[in-house]
Every structure is written in C-alpha cells, then in structure tokens.
Amino acid sequence: MNFGYISFDKEGGELLFTHLSLRAERKSTIITTNLSFEKWEDIFKDPVMTTAIIDRITHKAIAINMNGNSYRLKETQDWLKNNL
Length: 84
Hints:
By secondary structure, the protein is an all-alpha fold. It is built from 4 helices and no strands. α1 packs parallel to α3. It starts with 9 loop residues before the first helix and ends with a helix. The mean pLDDT is about 85.
C-alpha cells in the first residue's frame, strides 16, 4: 500500500486502522510512502488515529529509510538527452 498525496477521511482512516489491526502479528504488510511519520497527521486528519496507526505498523517492524535521487527524474533526463 502506498499513500501520501491523497488524504483519508475519518471513515477511510478507521478502515485502514481496522485492516492493519486485523493483520497485526498474522500477516506481513509492506507500506511505502515518501512522507515522514511527522507528516502523517496531514493525511489522516486525526492525531489520535494517526498515532494509533503508526504504533500498529511500527510494532515489531523493520523500517527501511531509502533516500536518494528520483529514478523517474533520471529517466526523464536521460530521455530528454537522447531524444531532443
């Protein structure tokens, strides 16, 4: 699942929380985002639910912070160089 540019309404956030809760310690879940946890409240609009979601997904989790250049930007630059 990937999120970051589309905000969740209250019901959407609650559904995601429920989904993550049901999967907790039973199934693996991979979440990708370009937002730091500090900015997740902007997506979920509810500080309590945001804290609960972060708590659920970080419990016994492995977080991989991948910083680097955008591959999309590199592909675009390469395409422009070869086609213009």
